[in-house]
Amino acid sequence: MPELPEVETIRRGLGECMVSRGAGKILRVKVYETKSFIGDTQEIIGAEVKEMDRRGKALIIHLTNKKSLIIHLRMTGQLIWREKNASGDISKSFAGGHPNDNFIDKLPNKQTRVQIECEAGTLYFNDQRKFGFIKVVETEKVGEDAFIKKLAKEPWKMTGGELYEKLQRHKGSAVKPVILDQTVICGLGNIYADEALYYAGISPMRKAGEVSLAEAEELVTGARVVMERSLEAGGSTLRNYVKADGTKGDYLTLFAKVFNRQGEKCERCGGKIVKTKVGGRGTHYCPDCQK
DNA sequence: CTAGGATCCTGTCAGC
DNA sequence: TGCTGACAGGATCCTA
């Protein structure tokens, strides 16, 4: 579930908690699900969190002992930080990733896969479907990681021309699955792919080879715009979320124009938004203004 | 090389 | 109240 804006929100939020305020030393690591933690927990004991980084949808936590954690949340991962004061009360918390009640639930719980206990608090990695992972690597070798190495540029660095060239390389496929490919353009997931295509007025099932250079430029711009909007909205709502007022904020409705809006009216042309399937994924678009 | 489908896993929801 | 199948904000692996 978490796409680039959610991971970036986590990077900032955890950075504030674990770097600026400080998490202190890592005292203990509990692994409840072995496939969720790749590496030896002993490698990170005693280290402190130095810096929060991100490549595409992967969060990267640099530690003080020349090791780094590559964290990918995939569909249902969450990271929840709970800082405790001397009397054991939660003095600060942050939650991000797949939105559900785990954010305000008791932890650890059934979906907790890894728990990293630090001097100042505990970081919980929850993941319903177990697709995500935390991986220990040498900081120097983060760039050599198979996943990280293949990542394309993010839309802020990519030109329309570059995207156009890449679309031509997959000209037989529908454009939507192509822009979901992280080696083509990095950061988009199922929501922002739909939203970016809507922005550019391109039908998700159009052949990638039939997207013009001008449209590719619109598509890159669209990707940028929708993720920036989400970053503003998601960032603030996620903070509100953990204020534990009980409300389950759906920040999607703050910016999504087509995602999960099937049956509703298109705000641009008044047409009816449709949900269908493209490349095996649920896909939302307006048939009237996306051609 | 590309394209398309199956696969990893748990949980929820609609329909009978 | 079960049961069943579809589906889920990701990425990889396999086959043709």
Describe the structure.
- This protein is of the alpha+beta class and about 290 residues long.
- Helices cover about 30% and strands about 25% of the residues.
- The protein has helices at about 5-20, 145-150, 160-170, 175-180, 190-200, 215-240, 250-255, and strands at about 25-30, 35-40, 50-55, 60-65, 65-70, 75-85, 90-95, 110-120, 120-125, 135-140, 275-280, 280-285.
- A 5-stranded antiparallel β-sheet has the order 1-8-9-6-7. A 5-stranded mixed β-sheet has the order 2-10-5-4-3, covered by helices on one side.
- β6 and β7 (about 90-95) form a beta hairpin.
- α1 (about 5-20) crosses α6, α3 packs across α6 and α5 (about 190-200) crosses α6 (about 215-240).
- The longest helix is centred in the last third of the chain and has 29 residues, at about 215-240.
- Mean pLDDT is about 90; it is low at about 235-250.
- It binds a DNA duplex (16 and 16 nucleotides) through α5.
